[in-house]
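Quick board copy: two proteins, each given as sequence then tokens.
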Amino acid sequence: MRSLTIRTQLYFAFGLFIVVPIALSFLFSFYYVKVFLLERAYQNLEALLDLKTSQIVTWVAQGQKAVNLIANIGSNEAQEHFLADNVSIEEIFKAGYKKHIHQVKSEFPNVKSISVLAPDTGRVIYSTEPMFLDRLRTHEPYFKNGSQGLYVGSVVYSVGREEAVLNISAPLFSNEKKILSVLAAEMKLSHLEKSINTRTGLGRTDFVYTIDSFGFYVTMPTSRKAFPLQMAPDNEAIRQLLSKKTGHARYKNQNGIEIISVYRWLPEANMGLLIEKEYI
């Protein structure tokens, strides 16, 4: 009995001082490897987030540059006489201003149309989109805010287009600082969606999309087939984005698959950007 007790004690000591430390070491190593891999995955997603942010900012900047180029035409000495206070905006177009607008639009492929609005009524005096001519934009935020300075609107549903649009606007002043019109550039959301869904840097299970301030899709992930502003996804990252926050999250999607994501609110575009990755 005594030798059995000693043997049992030896087994116990072996387990306590050798097996247990090895097992704990393995568990801690496994834990830290998982933490390291998770942090590495987040870092990769953050790098992608920076890339996609840059693409969105570039897209918005095209609209801003387009209206600014037209609005700053008064700085061009060759055309300053068109902007005298005794010349109406209609007469300016008779003098060849239309050609200038079409030329500017052709230089920015992300711009869908450019319209010129009367400063008092919001009536469309001229547009590269003929169907907009003479329509009233009096109550549109981009008309009201665009008369004050450069303005980037939110994505909204256009009844005339029957699709979601984003408008960027700015005032056109005479040399005497009298407002002659409000310029509005309508942006191509399809170009934005195509740009940020380019698979460069994205894995097979990585998805990118944007939402508006109400949580509706602006651009769709490649895994979804729908139109902008028709669906509102729900997850922890979306809820944080609706509070205009930036960060990362971990959750399960509607299929029960574990997801890690990074997200960022972009005030310059009035939308939130989110990148998701299946985490296995």
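And the next:
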Amino acid sequence: MHAQSLNSAWLATPPGETRSQVLRHVLEHAAHLLPTQGPIGVFIHHNTLHAFEGEPFEKALIRAAAMFDAEIVDVVETISSEFPRSALVVILATLLILAVLLRSILLPIKAVLMNTLSILASFGALVWIFQEGNLSALLGFAPLGFVETTIPVILFCVLFGLSMDYEVFLLTRMREIYDRTGDNTAAVAGGLERSGRIITSAALIVVVVAGSFVFAEIVLIKALGVGVAIAVALDATIVRALLVPATMRLVGNWNWWEPRWMTRILAGRIASEAEAEAGTQ
């Protein structure tokens, strides 16, 4: 539809919802001219379109786009300022919990670094696919030229929890074997053997479920599904099956180093498997 006919349709519609629906329809189809697509429905829902009644279509569209630009800038700035603090809280809480659970200093740090690898790999894949447009024909979407602002935040929260869950499965089994044998090599091999099938099965389920999101029509949902599927697949194969055992084998018994102050604090509160077995005998 040409601008003249759009302008005629705009002026010819009666006041109220009908005219707002025309503007909504045009905004949705002209979304590629605006800085983002995802929150456009939220913007239209929360802002009054009746203020544009009686204006030519082109002028109303420009005003609506300007309001939309300002709101998007506010959302991006808010997310950018709050996300680092939220991520820091999540990471510090994870380090503390894993340090108490595993009674180690190096293992929690290594776990966070390994989680970061899979998350960053997922972010890179999203840029390659949804920003640069690779595989767009296969996945059935039009490249946006950018990645929606909320996607990295949501993916970080979801993937950090999933990846850490697999890490806990693996490291707790290794810790149990090390407490019994005191042999780092046996602990790494035995822990991987005992938890490998569980991690692989759980990851496969998540990959299949998240992968089904690619059939969604909304690009945001499609991107989230692809991001989760890629990250979990990499985490359960390359990271957990290769990088984690390899680094632990190289570090050796330093994996299980526990400073004296930690031993004093945790003594009598959280017992290792060897201490628990000794207490029952």
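Board note added afterward: The two ends are 84 Å apart (CA to CA).
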